[in-house]
Structures are given as C-alpha cells and as structure tokens.
Design a protein that fits this description.
This protein is an alpha/beta fold. It has 11 helices and 13 strands. 34% of the residues lie in helices and 22% in strands. β2 and β3 form a beta hairpin. α8 packs across α9. The chain is globular, with a radius of gyration of 20 Å. Bound molecules: uridine 5'-triphosphate. The site of uridine 5'-triphosphate has 20 residues, from α5.
Length: 307
C-alpha cells in the first residue's frame, strides 16, 4: 500500500450545531470519551495512514493543540503518579505526522480539498471528513480497503457508501451504480439529494474518499453551486463525465457512519458511544431505562427537531 496521506477538512463553520460551536469546532465535540477528530485520526491510523493534513480555519486551534505532545501535562501526571490518566495520552505518541493549512474563506468542502493541492501535489490521497466517525471505537478499516481497491483497479475516485433507509435519500449524495452492486461496484454518477422517487439507489456518500490528483483539476473547473460553495460531489461528477473510473465501496454493518453535523445525529452518536463504554456503559443503560418512561413527557415541550 503506497497511499499514506489523508486530507482532513475541518474548516466548516458548523452553523447547524450553534450555539455549541460558537467558540469550539464541531470536530472537537466529545463523542463518548474522545473528541470527534481523535476518533477520525485513530480510524485512519488503523488503516495505515501516517501523514495527516488538516484543512483548518478560524477558531480551530484546539484541534492542533489536541494532537500536540503536551510535555508539561505528561510530566505533571508522571510526577503525581497518575498512570491511568497518562495512558489516555498515548495517542500523542502514535507514529503520525501532522500538517495544517488554512482555508481562508469557507467556500465549501470542494474548496477545502483544493487547499490541500500545494502540499499533496501529484500523488493520490485520502479525504476523510473531520466531522464524521465510521464505526464505534475506530473498528473500521474501510480506508485501507478503499486504498487497496484504488491501487488494484487503477481508479481515479473511490467513494465509501452507506445504505440508508429509502425515505432518507433526499438528505445525501446518492450513488447511481453501473451494473450490479456488491461490496465494490462501479460508479455511473452521483446524484445530490435526490427526490425519494427519483433516487437511483439508497447508497449514500459516507465521508471517506480516495482520489487521484486529477480531482484537483476538476475542482478548479467546478462552478460554485448552492450557497456559492464549491461542492466535492460536483468535481467527482466531472471526473466521471470525463471518462474517469469511479468505484464505490459499501460500508459493512459494523461500520456505521456517525455524522456530527447536526444535533440529532450528534446526540445519537454520543449516546451510542457512551452506552458502549466498557466502564460506564452498563450502568448508563440501566439509568436510561429508568429515565425513559418520564422523558417522553418533557421532550414534547421542546421545539421540533432541526436537520
Ligand atoms: P458541512 O457540509 O457539514 O459544512 O462540512 P459546515 O460548514 O461544517 O457545517 P454547517 O452546514 O455550517 O452546519 C462537512 C465537512 O467539511 C468541512 C467541515 O469542517 C466538515 O468537516 N468543511 C466544510 C470545510 O473544511 N470547509 C468548508 O468550507 C465547508
């Protein structure tokens, strides 16, 4: 496997999670015991990624701080004999290199990926959205499988897909497969947020990609879409339309995507990770059982859920 670099865009404004994200990045919200970005990095490290290029922006310094080695804190924990807490910082010593560049204006995910060009250059690379976790506790090697498929098939684009309920396809970029759908399938095109009746499948783009550098040329050509943003899916579409080879990989059942982009999915993710916690999960499950009969009444007082 030769691809060992992942671009992790984390520059978005996270407006759907206000006020929680007013002065902290959504990528640093905790899910269970770790911030989202650490779940993403752990997953990528498990798939053989060694170089991480974060596309950051205003107010995102805490992400850089999190992956720095905090010698003072380590010394303090060591001096005070806090071995268990010290072990929680083991992630700092992973054999990884971190790079950061800034997206100076938030012109969309496609534009964020284009900001990686001067550093990535003429080599294939992974893109992993910094606000999406795949699988509980980094138990996914989807990126490794995607890289292997990319290299074996000489593809230009490999995209991860998750099967979603048919009635929810209008929220996602959806695959139109060419031919039969298996764990790996050929991609005819991507349809952004289709009507339920028109959706060509229920396979939704799932936050992980492998690209040949040709994507950079297509991102330059991509016209701003909704909200003036340069969309990554539009650039992928251009690759496919110009004869590029696109493949899809299906996530396995244990590799669900947790999207930390809106409160409903954030709450679900936190809840599921907390319930799965080896130490606190079992008691939390008991607690939730006692809570459930009463919480129906109080939830009805709240405003309707927002997307
Ligand atoms: P979203 O599409 O959820 O956009 O980003 P957003 O701006 O962060 O959130 P809202 O819509 O205001 O609530 C998906 C991923 O792409 C990154 C985000 O940080 C997130 O990890 N992104 C998005 C960028 O890096 N730059 C952008 O201009 C937009």
């Amino acid at each position: 496997m030769t691809i060992d670099i992942a671009v992790v865009p984390v520059a978005g404004l996270g407006t759907r999670l206000l006020p929680a994200t007013k002065s902290q990045p959504k990528e640093m919200l905790p899910v269970g015991r770790k911030p989202v970005a650490q779940h993403v990095v752990d997953e990528l490290a498990g798939s053989g990624i060694r170089r991480l290029l974060f596309i950051t922006g205003k107010g995102k310094h805490s992400i850089e701080n999190h992956f720095d080695i905090d010698g003072e804190l380590v010394a303090y924990l060591r001096e005070t004999g806090r071995e268990r807490e010290l072990a929680e910082l083991d992630f700092e010593r992973q054999d990884l290199e971190f790079f950061y560049t800034r997206q100076r204006r938030q012109l969309g995910l496609g534009h964020a990926v284009l900001c990686a060009r001067p550093l990535v250059g003429d080599q294939p690379f992974v893109v992993a959205l910094g606000d999406s976790i795949i699988g509980i506790n980094a138990q996914s090697d989807i990126v490794r499988r995607m890289i292997e498929t990319f290299e074996a098939s000489r593809a230009d684009v490999v995209v991860a897909f998750e099967e979603v309920p048919r009635e929810e396809v209008f929220r996602y970029g959806i695959a139109q497969p060419r031919g039969p759908v298996d764990d790996v399938f050929e991609l005819e095109r991507l349809v952004e947020k289709p009507e339920i009746a028109d959706a060509p499948s229920n396979l939704a783009v799932a936050a992980r990609y492998v690209f040949s550098p040709v994507i950079f040329d297509k991102l330059v050509e991509t016209q701003p879409g909704k909200g003036g943003e340069i969309q990554l899916t539009d650039a992928i579409q251009l690759v496919l339309e110009s004869g590029g080879k696109g493949l899809g990989l299906r996530l396995r059942s244990h590799e669900r995507r947790f999207d930390i982009g809106n409160f409903e999915s954030y709450f679900r993710a936190f809840f599921e990770f907390a319930l799965a916690d080896a130490k606190f999960g079992p008691r939390l499950q008991q607690f939730v059982r006692t809570l459930l009969p009463t919480c129906k009444l109080s939830a009805s007082q709240d405003s309707p859920a927002q997307a």
